Amino acid sequence: MTYAEKILEYYASVSIPQQLPDSVEVLYPFDREYVSAILETFYHKYFNDNHSRTFLIGINPGRFGGGSTGIPFTDPIRLKEELNIENNFDPKQELSSRFIYQMIHAIGGPEIFYKNFYFTSVSPLGFVKDGKNLNYYDIPALQECLEDYIVEEMKKQIEFGAKDTAFSLGMGKNIAYLKKLNAKHKLFKEIIPLPHPRWIMQYRLKRLNEFIQEYYNQLSRTIE
Fold first, then answer.
1. Phi, psi of 127, deg, nearest 5
2. What's the CA gap between 152 and 135, in Å, rounded?
3. Distance, CA of 34 to CA of 216 (rounded, Å)
4. Which residues, 6+ apart, have CB-to-CB distance to 91 below 8 Å?
5. CB 3.0-4.6 Å disulfide test: which of 43, 64, 82, 122 passes with 94?
6. pLDDT per residue over 53-84, tens digit each?
């Protein structure tokens, strides 16, 4: 099976976490035929090979990015304008997606980038509460009930073909949690933290080029 086929098979049957805290809802776009068609187009376009890839691990998908399109860090606007994949999603933008695709261009463009890197998240599915994005670590009870699920789903994805070094998109709670999990379950040899794209766009926009350079310096070392 190609990398694309493994990913598509995974998302066609990705598990939904159970027994979540009250009022926490799961973002699950993968049961819609339209999303499945978009995923097939994207993954066959960029992952139609058997190369191992470096994992870039976010927090969990948001409403306007992966929680909508099914593709991590890719909102409907970037899907059309950057990847030339026409779509009928509500054309809302995600701040993280804006940063990610500027960074992807710095690396050399989508073809080079996706040949070397695979985006995922600590939780492959996103969460909302009261209509707002929710991070897995925002509610201690949510993080606690998700641990077995998170480890199981990450192991499934590592089987696609993962390099020993991974990157955490998030230098605070995300990397702290990932390091704790990694020490316990030995998922990767090393996990290196990078500033979270949304944090950059929301709080450090004037230093955007500096952070793109930081990503370039770290990620380009892993490109073969």
1. -135, 150
2. 19
3. 33
4. 76, 77, 80
5. 64
6. 999 999 999 887 888 899 999 999 999 999 99
The radius of gyration of the chain's CA atoms, rounded to the nearest angstrom, is 16
Structure tokens at 133: 């994005």
| Structure confidence by residue, pLDDT tens digits, 31-52 | 889 999 999 999 999 999 999 9
pLDDT confidence of residue 73: 94
Distance between CA 16 and CA 24 in Å, rounded? 13
Residue listed under structure tokens 């350079």? 213
Over residues 212-217, mean pLDDT: 98
Tokens describing residue 200: 């950059």
pTM: 0.95
Contact between 159 and 6 (Cβ < 8 Å): yes
Mean residue pLDDT across the chain: 95
CA–CA gap between residue 140 and residue 121 (Å, rounded) = 18
**Residue tagged 């949510």 (tokens):** 142
What's at 77, amino acid-wise?
A: I
Q: Report the DSSP pairing between strands 165-169 and 54-58.
A: parallel
Q: Which of 194, 150, 198, 200 is nearest to 169 (CA)?
A: 194
Residue 64's pLDDT is 76
In the chain, the domains with their CATH numbers are: 3-220 (3.40.470.10)
CA angle, residues 219, 119, 184, in degrees to nearest 5: 90
Q: What is the structure's pLDDT at 65? A: 85
Residue 68 pLDDT: 87
Q: What share of the chain is helix, strand, coil (3-state, %, to 5)?
A: 50, 15, 35
The 10 Å Cβ neighbour count of residue 18 is 8
